[in-house]
Amino acid sequence: MHEFAFSINKPFFEAFEYLAVPEGHVDVTVVLDKKSTFLDLDVDLKGEMLVQCDRCLDYFSLPLEYRGHLIVRFSETAMESDEEVMWIHPDEYELDLRHYLYECLSLSIPIRKIHPDLPNGEPGCDPEMLEKLDEYLIK
C-alpha cells in the first residue's frame, strides 16, 4: 500500500477549460494497492472550487468532497479506459491521473449551482441581479 497526497490549484483548472472553473484548491489523497496483475486506487478529493452561480452569474466558492475508485490494468495493446478501469502499457512507469481527476471534479459539480443562503435566510446571490430578475419576472 502506498499513499500519495497532493493539491490541485489554479494551473490545473486553467489546463481544463471545459470544466468552467477558473480556480480552486482541492487536496487529493490517492491510496494505491499494488497487486500482481493490476493497481487498485482509492481517490479522495476535498476542497473548494470557484463556480459561477446560475441565478446571478456571480462566482462563489463551492465546497467539494468526492470519493472514487479506479482499477489500473496492464495491456500491451491499446485499450480504451472508462470511469472505473484505466489501461496502461506494462512498461509504463508513471500513472497520469490528470484526466481521471478532471472527470471526478466534473462529476462533483452540481447541475444547478446557486449561492448558498446567508445565515439570516436571505439568498446569497447579488442583490442587484435579484432585483433585476424580479423586475422581469412574469407574474
Q: Give the count of helical stretches.
A: 3
| Strand-pairing-aware structural class | alpha+beta
SS strand fraction? 35-45%
Radius of gyration: 20 Å
Helix fraction, binned, reads 10-25%
Average pLDDT for all residues? 88
- Total number of distinct structural domains: 1
Strand order of the largest sheet: 1-2-3-4-5
Q: Largest sheet, described in full?
A: 5 strands, mixed
Measured distance between first and last alpha carbons: 61 Å
Number of strands: 5
Given as residue ranges, the uncertain stretches (5+ residues, pLDDT < 50) are: none
List the helices and strands and how they pair.
Elements: E1 2-8, H1 10-15, E2 23-34, E3 38-52, E4 59-74, E5 85-88, H2 98-108, H3 127-135
Parallel strand pairs: 4-5
Antiparallel strand pairs: 1-2, 2-3, 3-4
Please describe what this structure looks like.
With 139 residues, this protein is an alpha+beta fold. The chain has one domain. The chain is 19% helix and 39% strand. The chain is built from three helices and five strands. Strands 1-2-3-4-5 form a five-stranded mixed sheet. Strand 2 and strand 3 form a beta hairpin. The radius of gyration is 20 Å and the shape is elongated. The N and C termini lie far apart (61 Å).
